[in-house]
Amino acid sequence: MPELPELETLRRDLDREVGGKRVKSVDVPGRTAIGHTPRKQMMERLDGVKVSGADRRGLLLTLKLDSTELLVLDLRTGGGLRKTTPREVTAKGTQVVISFTQGGQLRMVDPDGGMKVWVASPEELLQQEPVLSALGLDPVVEPISWTTFGHLLLGRGQPIKAFLTDPTAVVGIGPVYSDEIAWQAGLRHDRDSHKLTSQEMRRLYRALVETLHDGAKHRGTTLADGRYHDLAGKPGGYQDLLQVYERAGKACNRCRGTVTKVRYGKSHVYMCTDCQV
To answer: Which domains does the chain have, with CATH numbers?
Structure first.
């Protein structure tokens, strides 16, 4: 599943490459991607509209249309986006193709059928995705203060891993970046958030902000499965900077201990048992 840095990279790409373009036609060769809007109705609502820009709401991407509606792109459970020319070969699993009057296409590709695409008004979107009304902090969209973050930690009796991956606390963090943030802070994943010292809270705050911004700066993480690519089809670069995730058995770059894969609930956590306390 893509996390905040990957989707923020796609948002920036969309804003630059698609913003200001007018829709010429919409083709829906796939059968699985259409979300809350019926196929025919979605095509009608996109006909001739102009894209004014791209936005991100948690892990949902939206294209702002001059009709005042939104084209919603849900990649939380799979799929990818490609900006192409009409002559490029259509990739297997292409679900939706939007052609623009100035030339070029936006293609939504998902062989596994997990992605969803639909058109909604801002009010409809809040009804369709109630989670958007309860989203937590988004450090990439707007700066957060250390004191705000500290109060949030104190108000929740959650293990650090659960806190970081709770979208009502901080949006967009999954297994990759939560493990990296905990390592950067030098803290175990199972420490209770409200029992951290003031110094530990500051370390976690700094690690959170710096890791997410660095992840977006390096255009996201493409793991061994190769699923994530940016709008041009290129892999991210942050995987080369990962310190613990999928590095079990390798030396810790901070203390030279051994990175370990440990059980956490129904999944696993990557950590250094020597320097994360």
So the answer is: 4-134 (3.20.190.10), 146-272 (1.10.8.50)
Three-state SS for 120? strand
| Type and span of the H or E element at 198 | helix 198-217
- Distance from the first to the final alpha carbon of the chain: 28
Is residue 39 pLDDT above 90, yes or no? Answer: no
The H or E element that residue 125 is part of is helix 122-128
Report d(CA 261, CA 189) in Å as an integer.
Answer: 12
Query: CA triplet 62, 65, 67: central angle to 5 degrees?
Result: 135
Cα separation, 204 vs 223, in Å, equals 24
Cβ-count burial of 25 within 10 angstroms (0-12 exposed, 13-18 middle, 19+ buried)? middle
For residue 102, the tally of other CB atoms under 10 A from its CB is 9
Neighbouring-strand partners of residue 82:
107
Which one, of 31, 30, 27, lies nearest residue 43 by Cα?
27
High-pLDDT (> 90) share of the chain, %? 88
pLDDT, one tens digit per residue, over 40-75 is 999 999 999 999 999 999 999 999 999 999 999 999
What is the rounded average pLDDT of the residues 168-186?
97
